[in-house]
Structures are given as C-alpha cells and as structure tokens.
Design brief:
Elements lengths: L12 E5 L3 H6 L5 H22 L3 E8 L7 H14 L4 H4 L2 E6 L7 H13 L6 E9 L1 H14 L9 H6 L11 E4 L18 E4 L9 H12 L9 H8 L1
Parallel strand pairs: 1-2, 1-5, 2-4, 3-4, 5-6
Helix pairs in contact: 2-3, 3-5
Length: 242
C-alpha cells in the first residue's frame, strides 16, 4: 500500500527496536547470525530512506546489555558484523554522522577502536545523525547518570529533569518523536525509557531483515494521523495552533 505522507511533518527523531533477526533466520533453517547479517542490509535501506525523507536522528537498538547473556558464538558474530558494517561507505555517501551510546567498556577493544574511528570520520556530516545503541540498556544509562551526578557532588535541590537529561548518553539529541518495534513483540525492552516519555509508539509484525521503505512509510503515516498532546487536552493543543 502506498502512503501519501506530509513531508512537512516527518518525525525528526525515529528510534527503532530492530527485532526478529534470529526468528527470521531460524524459519529459513539458518543460524541466528545469518539473520543478523540480513538485518545489516535493512539498516542500510532504512538509513538511506530516512536521509532522503529529512529525518534528522535515527537511533537503532543494536545490542542490549541483556544480550551479553546470549550464546558466545552469536555474540562473536554480532561483534564481527559491527566491524564489517562500519566499513560501509553509506555514512559518507549520505552525509550521515555516526554516534554510539552504551557501555563501551564491555566491548572488545577492536570494536571500541572502530566505533571511535567512525565517529571521528563522520563528525562533520550534517544530513542526519545515526545513533547505534550498543551494549545499551535504559536502566544502565539512568544508573550511570545518577552515579555521575553523585561523583560531581550535585546537591539534591539541583536535581531535576534537565540535570538528569544532561547526564544521559543521549544528551546531544532530542527525544524520539516516533519509536518503531519490528518483529511482533509488544514491549520496550529497556530502551530509551526516559527519552520516550511522550514518543508515539508503533509496533509491526515484520521481521527486521524484511523491513522495507514501504514499512517505514506506513509507520510514519500512522504517526502523522495522531495528535501529540504532551499531557494537554485536545482543545488546548488546537488552541495553540490558532
């Protein structure tokens, strides 16, 4: 189905939980790592389409802190994919800045080095920022922010939403307008819990390796049909437009 989108109302920040890689592979009689490899192609597709549409931030949940409990061979394959996918010139071709959030200390040193190099290489790119959440979970992030604030000796009376947000790993970007989860699961899985307080949520059954530009358009079309009220009444929001 083709969707007519209002290009003046494209969400500026889209966050995606890229779910279904393993199930996609197993349904084809393949190893789970095969699904993760196919998922990289979906990342390239969706990144290119987001830049074309004018999205400014795309945040991808790539590997959670809980994923460290997965089998060692799957983790090793995932880390290898991180390295090979960052060789892709997609970032430079589409003028995309690359950033990473998460507990980098747990990653292999060669992966950490490659991530830092990619951040530096793309630092001057301006069309869109792609943020990869790697070894990330929201509870880890909030706990880390509280620890940092304690180390800085911030007084209790100076702790507020703004000061907490400044200590989160996402302090360089706005909160997501739209959160998409693929793969049919209806949960957030410890992802950007602070940041999605007023994000619009969209769930679909499509496994991530099959996720297409048309699927993205469908999610954005759903987003554009909604009224974002941020706690206000519908009448208040309409009054602000007048």
């Amino acid at each position: 189905m083709k969707h007519e989108l209002d290009m003046d109302r494209i969400p500026q920040h889209i966050a995606i939980i890229m779910d279904g890689n393993g199930r996609w592979a197993m349904e084809r009689g393949k190893e789970r790592s095969y699904g993760h490899q196919a998922g990289v192609e979906a990342v390239r597709r969706i990144t290119a389409e987001c830049t074309r549409m004018g999205v400014k931030y795309l945040t991808l949940y790539t590997f959670s802190t809980e994923n460290w409990n997965r089998p060692a061979d799957e983790i090793s394959a995932l880390m290898g994919l991180v390295l090979t996918s960052l060789e892709d010139e997609l970032l430079m071709k589409h003028n995309v800045r690359f950033r990473v959030i998460g507990d980098m200390k747990r990653l292999p040193e060669n992966v950490q080095q490659k991530l830092r190099q990619t951040e530096m290489r793309t630092a001057a790119n301006t069309t869109m920022t792609m943020v990869v959440a790697l070894s990330y979970s929201s509870r880890w992030e909030i706990t880390n922010a509280v620890r940092l604030m304690a180390e800085e000796g911030i007084k209790p009376e100076d702790i507020n939403e703004e000061s907490i947000s400044k200590h989160l790993t996402t302090n360089f970007m706005p909160d997501p307008d739209l959160l998409i989860r693929t793969g049919g699961e209806l949960r957030i899985s410890n992802y950007l819990l602070w940041q999605i307080a007023y994000s619009e949520l969209y769930f679909c059954d499509t496994y991530w390796p099959d996720y297409s530009e048309e699927d993205l358009h469908e999610a954005i079309a759903s987003y554009q049909k909604r009224q974002r009220r941020f706690g206000k009444t519908e009448a208040q929001v309409e009054g602000m437009k007048e």
